[in-house]
Structure formats: structure tokens, C-alpha cells
Specification:
There is one protein chain. This protein is of the alpha/beta class and 353 residues long. The chain has two domains: 191 residues, no CATH class; 142 residues, Toll/interleukin-1 receptor homology (TIR) domain (Rossmann fold), CATH 3.40.50. 43% of the residues lie in helices and 18% in strands. Strands 4-2-3-1-5 form a five-stranded antiparallel β-sheet, sandwiched between helices.
């Protein structure tokens, strides 16, 4: 594959990778991704990783360098370093650890995903991963030069992208951080975002805690309809404003947590004025759609029908949906039309309060 091709030229490969990662995510592999931070003060937290496992260095912040005083010391560390494990003497080193019997298979898939990015795109991921650290250090002391490095191995590029995608590039208070969801599912989410946006960026559009937000509308859909739903969401944003739409990609960092099912059901059932359900064959097959659908069915059971809107793409049978139920035909109406219908329904709900 031509590494100079941009993401826009690699859409067929992105789609192939989406299919591959989706197939593996549906198998519920026993695999865990963690980040492990090493500092000069703390080399180990006592954490024991299960076997088999695989560790890879992602990035390092070496520290602030005064060229007149520290240059020779830096050169000495470079000469004495084993670069499989990074640069000797770094203040913070970030490693990724994959645990589980299928980690080798995931590594091969991740290396292929990391090869999606050409040199400029890979450099953009690297600079964003460490950019905020460097900016903070430069602001604190403009007379010294902060140095940071990232691993340009395709596996490390992909894992760095996943963590940046989750807005989780910095060490927290814990030395070891478990990353949720599992790396197959997280890779699938990241690839679906690449397919729809073809850009490299953080996923979250909000800094407000999810538990504090009451949404005007929530989207429930399978990944196969993400491109359609993303266009609907983008059409709605100017009219509805910030934190008015629950669209999973806008809150991905906050959704990377245990007990996600409880949070999602609360959002769909209790904290959204309107739930728009994008019905199709795939919707009836996906487990997460099924979880969201339980909350929708409870809304209908409570005779709050006006809070639910159906958009259909085919005649697939969905438990709890009947021929007498009204819907918008997603094959007839464009995304801008669907966004307009949602806005009209929200106006009707507001007038009836």
C-alpha cells in the first residue's frame, strides 16, 4: 500500500478493516488494553499483568533541556539506550500492555490499521499525543527546551491514535490505567469515525459530565448506518447547540467505563426528550442496540410515544415494532430532511410542555 496516500484515498481499506474488527469484536475476545506509566520515581505500581501479554512503548517525555548544560548528558543517554524500551532517563514513559490469548492476532490487525496513516498523518498523531505536554512545559519555562518522542511503529501509531481518539493521552493519578472498551471494539469505533470524517481528531466534543446532561435528542443506531446518522447529527448541531444531541462519538472518552449499560439506559430512558431509532436488519442483531431498544420499549410501555421517532431502511422484523407503527423512510428522505423532521418533533414536544 502506498504510504503517501491520504485517508481519503484509503476508504476501501478502511471498510475492510471495519468488517474485520467488527467480526472480532462480536466474538468477545478475552483481551485487555492498559497503559502503564513509568517515571523516575515510580517504576512499578505492584501491578501484575496476566500472561500471555505484549508491551510496546508509545511515547516519552524526556524533560526540559538546557542546551548549554544538558546536551552532553542527553547524548550519553541516547548512546546507552535500548530503543525497544525508549530513551534512557525520560521523566515519563508511556507503555501499552495487551493481555490475553489473542493479543498476537490483535497486534497484526493493529499494525495493518496503523499503516493506514501516511507519514504526515502519522506525524500529526505523534505531535498531538505529546503536544499538550510540550505546550504546558514551554509556558512554565520558556528558556528551556522540552523534548518528547513517540514510537513510529505501526502498532504504536494505532494504539496512540486509539488513546488520542479517547482523549486519554496523558497519565492520570494511577500508574496503570485499564482502557475500556476492549481493543477490538475500540478499534472498530475509531475506524467507523475515520470512515465518516476522514480526519484525525479527538472524539469528545464536550467537557461536561454525561450524568449532568439532559439531551434534547438521542440517536440509537447500528454501526452500518453511522455515515447516515453522522450527517443528520451534523445538520442538527447548528440549530440545537452544544450538548443537545446524544451521539456516541461526541462523548467517547466518558463512555469508556465499566457499567456502561446502566449509563446508556438512563440516558435513553430518562434524560432525552426524543429518541430517534434508526431501524434496519442490523439493528435487530446488535447487542448494544438491543440494550438501547429495551429503554425505548419502556418509554412506549409508559405511553410516552411522542418521545420516540422511527427511521426505517428496510422491512426487517424488529421485536416490538409493528406494521401499524409510523416511520420516516431513510431510503426516500435525505439526511437534511430527517434532521428537519427531528427539529419539528422537538418543537412539538416543547409546545406541549
Amino acid at each position: 500500500m502506498n504510504m503517501q496516500m491520504s485517508l481519503r484515498d484509503k476508504q476501501p481499506e478502511i471498510r475492510r478493516l471495519i468488517s474485520a474488527f467488527e467480526a472480532e469484536a462480536d466474538k468477545f475476545h478475552d483481551i485487555q488494553l492498559s497503559t502503564f506509566f513509568v517515571t523516575q520515581e515510580a517504576i512499578s505500581s505492584g501491578q501484575k499483568f496476566s500472561h500471555p501479554n505484549h508491551a510496546v512503548m508509545l511515547w516519552q517525555y524526556y524533560g526540559r533541556i538546557d542546551p548549554d548544560q544538558d546536551g552532553q548528558h542527553l547524548l550519553k543517554n541516547i548512546r546507552e539506550s535500548n530503543f525497544q524500551w525508549g530513551l534512557k532517563g525520560a521523566e515519563i514513559s508511556c507503555f501499552a500492555v495487551l493481555e490475553g490469548a489473542t493479543y498476537n492476532f490483535f497486534v497484526r490487525m493493529a499494525q495493518r490499521a496503523g499503516s493506514l496513516f501516511n507519514e504526515d498523518e502519522a506525524r500529526s498523531i505523534e505531535s498531538r499525543v505529546v503536544g499538550e505536554i510540550l505546550q504546558k512545559e514551554r509556558a512554565a519555562n520558556p528558556n528551556v527546551k522540552p523534548i518528547a518522542v513517540t514510537n513510529n511503529n505501526p502498532l504504536a501509531i494505532w494504539l496512540n491514535y486509539l488513546l488520542y481518539h479517547l482523549s486519554m493521552t496523558h497519565p492520570g493519578r494511577e500508574i496503570v490505567q485499564k482502557i475500556e472498551p476492549d481493543p477490538y471494539t475500540l478499534s472498530l469505533l475509531a475506524l467507523e469515525r475515520l470512515a465518516s470524517d476522514l480526519t484525525i481528531g479527538k472524539i469528545d466534543r464536550s467537557l461536561r459530565p454525561l450524568q449532568d446532561i439532559n439531551f434534547k435528542v438521542a440517536m440509537s443506531f447500528p454501526g452500518e448506518k453511522r455515515s447516515f446518522v453522522a450527517e443528520v447529527v451534523n445538520s442538527l448541531r447548528p440549530a440545537l447547540g452544544t450538548d443537545a444531541i446524544f451521539y456516541d462519538y461526541d462523548y467517547q472518552a466518558q463512555l469508556a467505563r465499566p457499567n456502561l449499560d446502566i449509563l446508556l439506559q438512563d440516558i435513553y430512558r430518562n434524560r432525552s426528550d426524543l429518541v430517534v431509532v434508526f431501524l434496519c436488519k442490523e439493528y435487530g442483531l446488535k447487542q448494544w442496540c438491543g440494550l438501547e431498544w429495551r429503554a425505548v420499549r419502556d418509554i412506549i410501555k409508559s405511553k410516552e410515544d411522542e418521545r420516540v421517532m422511527f427511521v426505517r431502511f428496510d422491512d426487517a422484523s424488529i421485536d416490538g415494532v409493528f406494521s401499524i407503527d409510523g416511520y420516516i423512510d431513510g431510503n426516500v428522505f435525505k439526511t437534511q430532511d430527517v434532521a428537519g423532521f427531528i427539529t419539528e418533533r422537538l418543537a412539538t414536544l416543547a409546545s406541549s410542555e
